[in-house]
Amino acid sequence: SQQGEEDPQALSIQEGENATMNCSYKTSINNLQWYRQNSGRGLVHLILIRSNEREKHSGRLRVTLDTSKKSSSLLITASRAADTASYFCATVNQGGKLIFGQGTELSVKP
Amino acid sequence: EAGVAQSPRYKIIEKRQSVAFWCNPISGHATLYWYQQILGQGPKLLIQFQNNGVVDDSQLPKDRFSAERLKGVDSTLKIQPAKLEDSAVYLCASSLLGGRSSDTQYFGPGTRLTVL
How big is the CA angle at A29 (ends A28 and A31), to the nearest 5 degrees? Predict the structure, then answer.
């Protein structure tokens, strides 16, 4: 079964705009990770945020985590056409097992 | 550094046939994972190996799926016999140690299976 639910399922924006994707989960976690998947390719790890962290940045990516609401968001600033992909959140338990959400499909139009 | 290698990239078979997928993890990575990703969904863990031992196969349909990791390096995943609902992308991933929440998993490009 899948732990996370992502919202929206699909998002279409113009280049230069910001994209925000949300992830909600059900059980307690050790950390939460975000992955990107280009069409027909494997997943690429983007960023990890630990359960005791509230916000993390990596380049144009900003991730927040609210453990009281069991939710996380991924913000991509100044989006580019190359950011077009599916984005998945994955919750991680103490043993390191990843449980993925169903993903958000992002389309960035030039 | 070479990434996770998988073959074949695509496979089309008829239902009730058998199929096998191969994965070569990143050199030195102790833990290897097989995931199933059905269209429109996130990946679901099928089996996790630590070296050549199985750590978690709770989601593996053992009546038709089998996997092995001989010598703790390469791995094969087999489906016998295949059903229509097995159509999916099968992803292999590896991590340096595994079993720790902070480990990063590195994914291969996947094998897209179509069962007709």
Answer: 160
